[in-house]
Amino acid sequence: MALVDFLQQLEDLAVEAVTAFESATDADSLEAARVEFVGAKSGRLKAAQKGMGAVDKADRRAAGIQFNEIKTRIDAAIQAATERVASGGASAAGKPAEIFDPTLPGQRPRLGHLHPITQTIEELKDIMGRLGFSVADGPEIEDEHHNFEALNIPSDHPARDPLENFYIAAAQKSNGKPLLLRSQTSTVQIRVMENTPPPVRIISLGRVYRPDTADATHYPMFHQIEGLLIDKQVTMADLKSVLRLFATSYLGHDVHIRFRPSFFPFTEPSVEADMSWGDDWIEFGGAGMVDPNVLRAVGYDPEEVSGFAFGLGIERLCMRRHGVTDIREFYKNDVRFLHQF
Ligand code: PHE
């Protein structure tokens, strides 16, 4: 046989073999191709090797060199195909590998869930929604008008001390109007009343900020739920009923509410509301009848309408419900704590 014919045969064989290995999609088709091309007894490479004997003697050396070369090419194709099939990848021909072993244990995806505080917020919205309160939102960066002035908090009031608030220095410089992170959700009372004529029946839930040192019961950021109801002839009895229904719904058993006299610049009279807890009373939050000065500041007529407001700590409610003893647990982002809710 002439050398050129033999070399052509080798080349055709190599192309055919490489194509076969590249399109093998699983261990079975790979093995079949292996037997066909490089099988020890009747593989086609073996046959080609035998065919070398028919090449003219003078050309045998050149034929042998070429034979070794295509053997290396085919071996490399087998190696690549073996690795690809073992790792479950798609074949070079683009067909998806059909390796699926249903007996292997699965990989369970880790499912997250809402943060306990978010869960509490959703539940509180739900309860108050059933009492006819809709949800209002307000900004966390506030001006002094909404955080203090319209709430009847004068400039010499200790609550306005820069050391008791997170003032934002950059904002102050840009337009001369001091801005701060809101220290209470009562800001939203003002924002809603400024934009809505009475009657009003809203709650607002969100973050508030105070520069407190973190300990078991304090954190520089926490959440409040604010309630506001304005209508004709609203009384403290309405306030007490709403708080009692609210606490009873949240804690799931009959809860009594007790009022202790207190002071807030934006309510008159003002109370600390406690709720019964076994034989104890625990502090629930601040509340009172909206001060006439506040009603006037938003353009309401205090002779026409009256109303109540309350502000409660959301973390405290959530901690009570679940027996959490340290507020810092909520904000450590430790899934071992969080996944329990
Ligand atoms: N804003 C008050 C506080 O943060 C709570 C409060 C709200 C009191 C509404 C009375 C009425 O302490």
CATH superfamily of the largest domain: Bira Bifunctional Protein, Domain 2
Separation of termini? 82 Å
> Which strand order do you get reading across the main beta sheet?
1-5-6-10-9-8-7
Mean pLDDT: 91
- Ligands, ions, cofactors: phenylalanine
Give the tags.
seven-stranded mixed sheet; binds phenylalanine; three-stranded antiparallel sheet; 341 residues; single chain; 40% helix; rod-shaped; BirA Bifunctional Protein, domain 2; alpha+beta
Structure description:
The protein is α+β, with helices and mostly antiparallel strands. The protein folds into 2 domains: 3-87, no CATH class; 116-338, BirA Bifunctional Protein, domain 2 (2-Layer Sandwich), CATH 3.30.930.10. Helix content is 40%, strand content 20%. It contains 12 helices and 10 strands. It has helices at 3-22, 27-38, 44-51, 60-86, 116-130, 144-147, 169-175, 186-195, 236-251, 292-297, 314-322, 335-338; strands at residues 134-135, 141-143, 167-168, 179-181, 200-209, 221-231, 257-264, 267-277, 280-290, 306-313. The strands form 2 sheets. It has a 7-stranded mixed beta sheet with strand order 1-5-6-10-9-8-7, with helices on both faces. The longest helix has 27 residues, at 60-86. The chain binds phenylalanine (PHE). Phenylalanine binds next to β9 and β10.
